[in-house]
Amino acid sequence: MIKQNIGRYEIISEIGQGAMGVVYRALDPLLERTVAIKTISLDLSKDEFEEFEQRFYREAKSAGRLNHPNIVTIHDVGNTDNIAYMAMEFLEGVELRDIMDAGAQLELDRIVEIVSQVADGLAFAHEHGVVHRDIKPSNIMILKNGVAKITDFGIALIPSSSRTMAGMVLGSPKYMSPEQVVGQDVDQRSDIFSLGVMLYEMLTGKPPFSGDNISAIMYRILNETPMAPATVKPGLPEIFNYILARALAKHPDDRYQSAAEMADDMRSYATLHTPENFHSGSEGKPRTLERRSKPRPIEDQTVLMPSGAAVGSKAARQWWKHPLVIGFGVLVLLLGGAFLSREKPAVQETVQIANEAQSEVKPAAEPDSPAPLTLPVPQGMLSLAVTPWGEVFVDGKREGVSPPLNELQLSVGKHRIEIRNPGFPAYFQTVDIESESIQKLKYKFK
Hints:
13 helices
């Protein structure tokens, strides 16, 4: 049975249901206008609800100040019967998610225009200090006149202690940025990553990060690079390999630093040229990697790679067969033979000079002194079983995500293990590893 009123709003009909609550069409009798009411049902204690209410109002007020053609207008927020609600402009259109699920492939220029409009709206929000945190097709409304509107500003900051919120976030992990997955603070570049995921799916018909379960999806977001879109969909302009490599970079410093910059590249894709130092293959990397604030391991660098490019191209693997390389090798052999054919005293004199120069730096080792022995470091094994998943740190160093990580080889002695999942408090345990033994660590986040 549909409620008759929510706050001062008179309910007309139910529009739909989502993970957090129900959306209604309603009448605002005070201003005599039709509005959409989005409710948020929360399973929270009294203290938790009061904390959420303050954060929700603060965020909604920030979003309510956003007056932009590509952002839905928020009129009011409130709560009734432990249900928070948001009153916003009533839109006549269809969710982008429904358009994509219908199976019809949008024309390239239409995709570009939709994503560019979303980027315009995000750029405006970011300039006013508002980050959306949940950009995905179901939060984009396409109106009858073709305008794209971003919805659900103000809903992202729901406390992690809410089981409802945890289920909502984990229910749509495909569009989360790496920093969201590991529970770090996010800024506008997280929205850019999510927009890149949406663009990739619109262009290719496939999400860049998929899997049979949440753990697999989140592992791929953190560790894997999707196939270049022009490889997934032949005929797609290769400039989108570059645009998406920048949008989907694992580290925020390597992405577009503003949504406006991404919108500019999108709209000028037909005349945009890929920078000379960028390649879609394994030997190239986006130019933004040169602006990294801190060096990171090579496995963290994000470049969209065509199928089979992970180990280099065939030409790169067979460089030694090139005629110039063979000719250079022959020349080196000839010169080396001529040098060795000189009188031995000259060679001995050269070696003596080199030895004298070396002796100035450090004493020469005795000719017959044996090489020092290097003893292997005793090690043991740590077996991991984490449910549903967790990011594993050993003595402060990140080792990976479990699952799929299920074993770690560690040196003998005590180690501090930390397991993180953004939906729960971190778990800590000290393990004492013994030589050639297996320690088991099993933990389930609840």
